[in-house]
């Protein structure tokens, strides 16, 4: 490589001096500076963040870190064409501001006064124009493009609570995860899966419908007050991957009013990933056909209540409630239904099982109370789910009513009694339907719901 050592290069003729040829790169040595070429409207960035007040130098951009407190930046004495840029280093200017102070009698935007930068993620560029306007802000960006260290997902109705997103599905859908977090703990989601509640028994002195199965798991990174059935520890966790998770929301069972051989129906299952909550069992209705074998309330997430018998043609009542937590999971997704009673002239149906307490047995001619629900704050406020339906009742001849059992808070109002119409389970709460009497339809079960909660920031 050739080397030329001179103090000055001058053109031989004319006023144009060319250095290099087309396509060449002319490079200043490390540490060398230039004068006389002017600026191109940009700055050279100082990549050592400023953590204390300082005086800026024209031609330099600064990353200003206000994590520990507010900072004052004094602009240099302005000359036409001077330029200074500032950028929020840790996205904290909204908490600890940056005060930009002009030098002496210089102005900022035509005013000899300080300017305050107080927007998160802000970056600004000032150019000195003249004595009238002084430093003009020619660029002010409030965009804040940062890498995402958390999972991204869509589906359902999305709300936020603190650092958590909550996806609520009241019908079928897809929880679609497009990005997972590099931190494995942030991919462990909280969930609540509630199945559809079973319908109450219809016809005569029917049992209350069992609540839809209730399953919950609280991730440690999503703080909230979970129900007593929280599956952490010991339950089934779900760590998501970047894929689509189909969601099924179970419908409530349908009440039958025939008083014949056909029972009301159980609720349907709800699912998310590997989690299935079983539909609530149907409340048993009286079978007026004596050739049929008596059977109790239907099994399911929570069991349906047994019926209370009938006066004609044969007393087939007093049947047991259905078995809850069917199929079995840990922690239990529900409880058993209550037993009906037949002590002529009194007849009454058992209450449907609830998420946390079994359905009440019929007693003293009164229908059994629906089992108690589970209350969780997974959606940011406490809500009750999966209460059992109340059983129906009668005294003496058909139509002479006594009070039906009270449904669980997540289930129904009181179950039907005599000529009273049975209440339906609460929609999207998985409640069991109330039992019915006097040849009327059992209350329908309430539909289920699926809720997923995770940390998103």
Note down, in words, how this protein is organized.
The chain is mainly β. The protein has a domain at 44-141: Jelly Rolls. 0% of the residues lie in helices and 24% in strands. It has no helices and 24 strands. It has strands at residues 44-50, 54-55, 60-64, 71-74, 83-88, 98-101, 115-117, 123-130, 134-141, 152-154, 157-161, 164-169, 173-179, 190-194, 214-217, 244-248, 270-272, 275-277, 341-343, 346-348, 374-376, 383-385, 393-395, 449-455. The strands form six sheets. Strands 1-3-5-8-9 form a five-stranded mixed β-sheet, with no helix packed on it. A five-stranded antiparallel β-sheet has the order 10-13-16-17-18, with no helix packed on it. A five-stranded antiparallel β-sheet has the order 11-12-24-14-15, with no helix packed on it.
The dominant shape is rod-shaped
Task: Please give the oligomerization state of what you see.
Answer: single chain
Percent in strands = 15-25%
Low-confidence stretches: 311-317
* Rounded average pLDDT: 87
The helix-strand sequence is EEEEEEEEEEEEEEEEEEEEEEEE
Helix content: under 10%
The top level CATH class name of the domain at 44-141: Mainly Beta
Number of strands: 24
| Rg over C-alpha atoms, rounded to the nearest angstrom | 37 Å
Strand order of the largest sheet: 1-3-5-8-9
Report the major sheet.
5 strands, mixed
Q: End-to-end distance, in Å?
A: 56 Å
Q: What is the CATH topology classification name of the domain at 44-141?
A: Jelly Rolls
Structural category: mainly beta
Identify the CATH architecture of the domain at 44-141.
Sandwich
């Amino acid at each position: 490589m050739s080397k030329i050592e001179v103090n000055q290069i001058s053109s031989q003729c004319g006023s144009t001096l060319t250095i290099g040829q087309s396509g060449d790169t002319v490079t200043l040595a490390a540490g060398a500076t230039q004068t006389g070429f002017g600026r191109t409207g940009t700055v050279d960035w100082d990549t050592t963040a400023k953590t204390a007040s300082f005086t800026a130098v024209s031609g330099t951009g600064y990353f200003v870190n206000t994590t520990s407190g507010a900072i004052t930046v004094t602009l240099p004495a302005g000359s036409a064409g001077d330029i200074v840029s500032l950028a929020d280093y840790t996205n904290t200017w909204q908490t600890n501001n940056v005060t930009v102070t002009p030098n002496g009698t210089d102005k900022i935007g035509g005013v000899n006064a300080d300017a305050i930068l107080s927007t998160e993620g802000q970056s600004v560029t000032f150019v000195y124009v003249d004595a009238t306007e002084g430093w003009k802000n020619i660029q002010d960006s409030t965009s804040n493009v940062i890498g995402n260290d958390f999972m991204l997902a869509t589906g359902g109705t999305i709300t936020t609570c603190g650092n958590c997103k909550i996806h609520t599905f009241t019908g079928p859908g897809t929880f679609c995860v497009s990005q997972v977090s590099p931190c494995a703990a942030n991919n462990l989601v909280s969930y609540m899966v509630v199945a559809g509640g079973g319908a109450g028994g219809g016809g005569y002195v029917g049992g209350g419908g069992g609540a839809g199965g209730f399953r919950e798991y609280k991730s440690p990174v999503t703080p909230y007050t979970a129900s007593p059935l929280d599956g952490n520890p010991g339950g089934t966790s779900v760590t998501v991957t970047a894929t689509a998770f189909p969601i099924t929301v179970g419908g409530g069972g349908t009440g039958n009013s025939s008083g014949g051989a056909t029972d009301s129906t159980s609720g349907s299952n709800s699912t998310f990933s590997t989690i299935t909550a079983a539909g609530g069992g149907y409340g048993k209705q009286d079978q007026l056909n004596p050739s049929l074998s008596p059977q109790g309330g239907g099994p399911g997430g929570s069991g349906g209540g047994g019926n209370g018998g009938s006066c004609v043609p044969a007393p087939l009542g007093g049947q047991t409630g259905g078995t809850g937590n069917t199929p079995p999971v840990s922690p239990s997704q529900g409880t058993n239904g209550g037993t009906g009673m037949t002590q002529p002239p009194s007849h009454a149906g058992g209450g449907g099982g609830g998420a946390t307490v079994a359905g009440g047995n019929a007693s003293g001619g009164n229908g059994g109370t629906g089992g108690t629900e589970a209350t969780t704050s997974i959606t940011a406020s406490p809500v009750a789910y999966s209460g059992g339906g109340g059983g129906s009742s009668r005294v003496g001849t058909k139509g002479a009513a006594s009070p039906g059992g009270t449904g669980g808070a997540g289930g129904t109002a009181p179950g039907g009694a005599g000529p009273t119409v049975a209440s339906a389970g609460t929609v999207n709460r998985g409640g069991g339907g109330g039992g019915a009497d006097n040849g009327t339809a059992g209350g329908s079960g309430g539909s289920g719901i699926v809720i997923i909660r995770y940390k998103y920031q």
